[in-house]
From TrEMBL:
Signal peptide (residue range): none
Required cofactor(s): Zn(2+)
The UniProt record lists the keyword GTP-binding: no
Domain (Adenosine deaminase) ranges: 30-350
Official protein name in the record: Adenosine deaminase domain-containing protein
Gene Ontology molecular function terms on file: adenosine deaminase activity; metal ion binding
Superkingdom as given in the UniProt entry: Eukaryota
Any GO BP annotation: adenosine catabolic process
PANTHER family according to UniProt: ADENOSINE DEAMINASE, ADENOSINE DEAMINASE-LIKE PROTEIN
Catalysed reaction equations from the record: N(6)-methyl-AMP + H2O + H(+) = IMP + methylamine
C-alpha cells in the first residue's frame, strides 16, 4: 500500500510553500493520536522482521509467518479495501503477535513510530486475547502491553492504553475485559472501546460499558461505521460514551445529538476513504464537524494497513479543506481536551504545545 498522495493546491503553495513543506510542518507539529489499533499499527518492516524470525522456527510458527507474509504481499498492491475482507487479515497478524516477547517488540516499535512522526500523546487500543499455543491469557496480554509501554525507550511521547471489546465477543468476555480495565487502571489503562467487524452480530455489551463508566473509566465506541445501524447507534449512545470512533453513518437526529452533547469524534479519513465508507476526502464528515467547531480528532486507525501516518492525515486535511498552519495547530491542541488521561496530563501537554515553535 502506498502512502496517500497529498494534492498540491494554490492554497498549499501560498500557505506552506508546497506539499513537501506542508508534510514537514505536519510532521514537526506536536500531535495527539487517540484512535490507533495496536495490531493494525505495526510497521510492515516490523511485521516482516517478525515473520522472518518465525520462518526459522517450528512448523507451526513457519505457517504463521507464511500467512503474515502473504498479507504483507497482498497489502503492497491493494489500493482499496472492502470492510468484509479487512477483518480476516488480522488473523494472520495475530499469529505473529501471540507471545509476550513479540508483543513487547511490537509495542516498542509502534510507540517509536508515533514518536518519530511528532505524536506527543498516544492512546493505543488493543483487544486482550488468549492463545493456548503460547500460554497467553487476556490478563497476561494486558500486563505485557502495559509493561512494554512503561519500558518503551521513547522519551518524547506519553502513552496510555484502552482495552477493546470486539463485536464478536460474548457479553461475558466483554465483562471480563471491563474487569481487566478496572484492575489495571492504575497502571495506564484509561478506558474501554467497542470495535471489531461492524457486520458481526449485535450483542449486548451495554452492561459491560456501563460498568466501565460507573467505575470512572472512559468509554469510546465505534459508531455508525456502516449504513443501517441506526438502532444499534441509538442504543450505544445511551451509554453516554466520552468519544466516538468514525460516526460516519448517523441519522440526522443522532448526529444532532452528537453535536449537542459535544461528543468528540475520532476521525480516520484515510481509513474511511480506503474502506469506501466515505467516497472522498472532500466528502468526509469531518468537513461539517470542522465548520461547526465540533470536537474532532484526526487519527490513523491502522497506520500500517492504510500506510498513512498521522502527519499525513494532517496534511490531507490542510490540502483538502485549505487549513492554515494556525488552524492545524489549533486542531491538534484542541485534541488535548478529548484525551482520557487526567487533568494534570492535559495541563502538561498544553505546556508542550505552548512552547512549540514551528
Ligand atoms: C477499519 N476500522 C476498524 N473498525 C473496527 N475495528 C477495527 C478497525 N480496525 C481495526 N479494528 C479492530 O482492531 C483489531 C486489531 O487490533 P488489536 O488486536 O485490538 O490490537 C481488529 O481485530 C479489529 O477488531
Amino acid at each position: 500500500m502506498k502512502a496517500p498522495t497529498v494534492p498540491n493546491t494554490s492554497f498549499v503553495d501560498k500557505e506552506f510553500g508546497g506539499v513537501d513543506q506542508l508534510l514537514e510542518y505536519c510532521k514537526a507539529l506536536p500531535k495527539i493520536e487517540l484512535h490507533a489499533h495496536l495490531n493494525g499499527s505495526i510497521s510492515p518492516e516490523s511485521l516482516r522482521q517478525l515473520a522472518e524470525k518465525r520462518l526459522a522456527g517450528t512448523v507451526g510458527e513457519a505457517e504463521a509467518a507464511t500467512g503474515a507474509l502473504s498479507v504483507l504481499e497482498a497489502l503492497e498492491w491493494k489500493d482499496t479495501f472492502d470492510l468484509k475482507d479487512f477483518f480476516p487479515m488480522f488473523k494472520h497478524i495475530y499469529a505473529l503477535t501471540n507471545n509476550m516477547a513479540w508483543l513487547v517488540f511490537i509495542v516498542h516499535g509502534v510507540i517509536k513510530d508515533f514518536e518519530d512522526d511528532g505524536v506527543r500523546y498516544l492512546e493505543l487500543r488493543s483487544t486482550p486475547r488468549d492463545d493456548a499455543s503460547t500460554g497467553l491469557t487476556k490478563e497476561l496480554y494486558v500486563q505485557t502491553v502495559l509493561q512494554a509501554i512503561s519500558t518503551s525507550p521513547a522519551t518524547k511521547i506519553s502513552t496510555r492504553l484502552i482495552l477493546t471489546i470486539d463485536r464478536r465477543h460474548s457479553p461475558e468476555v466483554a465483562m471480563q475485559i471491563v474487569d481487566l480495565a478496572i484492575r489495571f487502571r492504575d497502571q495506564g489503562v484509561v478506558g474501554v472501546d467497542l470495535a471489531g467487524d461492524p457486520y458481526a452480530a449485535d450483542f449486548d455489551c451495554k452492561h459491560a460499558l456501563l460498568k466501565a463508566k460507573a467505575a470512572g473509566l472512559k468509554v469510546t465506541i465505534h459508531l455508525g461505521e456502516i449504513e443501517n445501524r441506526e438502532a444499534e447507534s441509538a442504543s450505544m449512545l445511551e451509554v453516554r460514551p466520552d468519544r466516538l470512533g468514525h460516526a460516519t453513518f448517523l441519522s440526522e437526529q443522532l448526529r444532532a445529538h452528537v453535536y449537542e452533547e459535544r461528543i468528540a469524534v475520532e476521525m480516520c479519513m484515510t481509513s474511511n476513504v480506503l474502506c469506501r465508507t466515505v467516497s472522498s476526502y472532500e466528502e468526509h464528515h469531518i468537513k461539517e464537524a470542522l465548520e461547526l467547531d465540533h470536537p474532532s480528532i484526526l487519527c490513523t486507525d491502522d497506520k500500517s494497513i492504510f500506510a498513512s501516518p498521522l502527519s499525513c492525515e494532517y496534511a490531507l486535511a490542510a490540502s483538502t479543506f485549505s487549513m492554515t498552519k494556525q488552524q492545524l495547530f489549533d486542531l491538534s491542541k484542541k485534541s488535548i481536551d478529548a484525551i482520557f488521561a487526567n487533568s494534570e496530563e492535559k495541563t502538561r501537554l498544553r505546556g508542550v504545545w505552548d512552547t512549540w515553535a514551528p
